[in-house]
What does this fold into?
Amino acid sequence: MKEKYLRLIVMLQEEHNYLKGKEIAKRLGISDRSVRNYVKDLNENYLIDSKILTNKNKGYILTGAVEDIKISEHFEFEERMFFIVKFLLDAQDWITYEEIAESLYFSNQTIRLDVIKIQKMIEEQYQNLKIESVIFKGVRLTGSEIEKRLLLESLSKITTLNKNKFIESLSYHFKDWLEKESVEESVQFFQKKLSNLYIPNNPETTISIMSYLIISLRRIGQRHYCDYGFDTADLIKIESTKEFEVAKSIMYDYGNQARIIIPDVEIIYFSFYLISQRLMFSVSADDSLNVPEELKEGVMKALQLLDQMYHSNSSEDEQLFSGLTMHLARDMYPLLFNFYIENSFITTIKKEYIQGYYMAVSFAKGLKKTLHLHLPENEIGYIAIHFASFIERSKTKNAKIAILTSRHQSVGYLLKKELERRYTNALISTPMCDNANFNEESLSDYDLIISIGPIGLEQQNIVVVNGIPTEEDYRVIDNIMKKISNVFVAKTDYFTRKKYSNKEKLLKGLLLGIGASEMLESILDREEFSTTDISDGIAIPHPLLTSSLETTKIAVAIQEKPLDWGSQFVDLIIMIVPGKNDQKMTSQIMEEIYQIIKDPELLEKAKTANSLEEFNRIIEKRR
It folds into this structure.
């Protein structure tokens, strides 16, 4: 099944409502006409127990449960890719294109082109794998044993749309390795073990672990073992985790069942796999995890580099340091051996924690320098949560609010709690004066005064609440707080609607517009760590380094035809280039942009702007 078909179905499953064709087209990077064709093909040739309904005004909605899909005899490239790699993995030495083509009922030319695509994917994602090709011999997969297994396991997920019929899916993918009855027995055996383990018993978890186990047991049975790439001290750290305990239990029992001796190294690698999949919800054993001194030193050096860049005190925050070291102590070994880190919340994290993610990427760069440890995008997402928490703890109280309660003390108490929740930057108090007896001079230090009941004082910063606060009261308070907390600084310096054919040309154009062309390499380095597209067709590119500009600059591009930015297509690009010694301003700009992208109506209006002045006017009037 085409990857975009799967993305379309998942999109409709998550929406639970009608989705406009234009929105689907934008997210998938296709035309409205292609959306109609995709829906028609899915309904006619793939979906069995479900259907995509079309409404001319509302768009598309998925009805029924996606219990199964029709498997065509002529499967798509994604499915061929799995079986080609499976053939390569199973071959003792060279295997010819003809042998693969005959087994899959495709031409030699098709298989040759597929192998070229697979090799390109391997070069991008796997450090120690290679497909060798020699005339008159054929092709073979060489390199790290664990990466071979992880490659095949990852490809088994691509074509698995239905998680509920996982036995059929496993039988289909591994049909020449195991009979269906053996698959059923293995799954039943696994599910019995789950009752005593700390793993969630659901179809998605079962199919992931079973794929890994089937592949590993096949390779172990053929005497292909994982490399022993760590010293004995590392084993103590891994053995202290809950994942190791579970891996040992499962592997030993499966080995006994299959009459295969399981080497200790296989238990360790299975532990890495369980850690990378984020399957263990009971982490009580982590308190005893021995954090390597090398990791502590590397994290501290990376934080110190961050402090130099952001003029912050992150290296002095014990909670941040402890959280990062404990988190990375568990993940560093899966990362070192190129395990894929699962993170289903990455899109939400990039959107909701812009500043935290911004700092996490810079931290990841520092960690690569200090520890030679590369953090992929999903792992950076988890790191971003630690930095988002640090940012919240570091916020200064820059607004003072007085609540005059009089006899309505209970209402005042509830109002105080609600305002503390809404405005983390506010210092809220109930001074010893009320609306019946107040000292005007004593209230002069407050930025906002809220009186529960009438008060004989005329000032711009007074809000009178009659009884229980209403939504209108909160809107008035919110408007005043925005004016107090922010002098709006996110003004655009350069704006364009020029059409660009690709991402790099657009970045060059924006940098030229603000006079910072020398920052292109740093911005491209940032994109390599993790693409800066966040959601809703928005990207916020920025460099890893500060520029030589005196002040922070903002450049905006709006594209009629969305550009492929990496993980999605985008049509609104907001570039931020920090000025030297201007990091405080950059953080405020990030916060303001976050407020902008949370407002879908404002975004749509902003995308209609045709000039720099018009764009700034729309954004400034957002309140």
The chain has six domains: 3-63, 71-144, 160-287, 293-394, 399-485, 494-620. The longest strand covers residues 553-564. The first helix runs from residue 3 to 15. The chain has a mean pLDDT of 83.
